[in-house]
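Before surveying the methods themselves, let us examine one representative protein, written as a sequence plus integers encoding its fold.
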Amino acid sequence: MHKPKILAFYEEGWGGIYSGSLARLKEVRTKVDLVCPVWLGLKADGRVGWEKTNTEAARFFSQTKLNFLVLVTAGSGQNSSAILADAARRRNAVSTISGYVKKVRAQGVCLDFEYINPGLKANLTLLAKELKSNLAGKKLLVAVFPYVDWDEPTRKAYDYRSLGKVCDGIIVMTYDQHRPSDLPGPIAARDWVKANLDYALTQTEYSKLWLGVGGYGYRWQSGKKRATALPAWYCRKQAIQKGITDSYDPETGNDYLQYQEKGNTYTIWWEGPRGAQEKLALAAKYNLAGVALWRLGYEEPEFWK
């Protein structure tokens, strides 16, 4: 059977329960094929907005000969759209990204432009084409929103077919089916993920497609408008504390917990190991390039077993 590769996003920007990317990577290094650190953010003019290079991590990548692609984001949708809309800003972005890749000796880039003006669809493909040309043989992946049952107009900003021809891979972010501002619901229900995969396969070669897997969850509290994002291992800890040993919901393939505390109702949905295993099996069945985990240190340790 085809064995999908594992791409793991790496991020150390938050502390407390949200830290742990490097520690987890050191534990599971032999099971990770490609790591993607969140190290470069662009301003609206295409130049460096922030840089979060972790020298310890970079040294570890080098020592272990672990291939890594730098994740490049433009933060807000306004920044992304501003870069795409202007040729000079696109040139700045290409120059900034290429220079940074050379500096940290990365094997390539994962482009993560979100909440883009849908009218700039062709411009995103153009940026990818210009960047790929300038990377001189290094890899270029692009992360895209899911398309089916995704209540967000900027899903139409991604030309899956054209991007698939230009880039070395397409990562479909098949998570956040229910977002913090939504009513409680699964992070990535089985049928929803399958529907988005089926759509993506009509647009992109299966060998270039990466299926996104979320290693986190959301906790909704009655009376509050937004949910709180939590690492999946922390969600499991909450379930155990409440005496719940099996939180897996067979209908959706996600894990679920609801409880009362101090007069409030709390509802947690998260991607547990069983759901992640189903998605890995799906990637194997369709001969996809692999799965892309968001993100190292959030997931339950059982994910790697």
The mean pLDDT is 96. The radius of gyration is 19 Å. The CA atoms of residues 108 and 139 lie 4 Å apart.
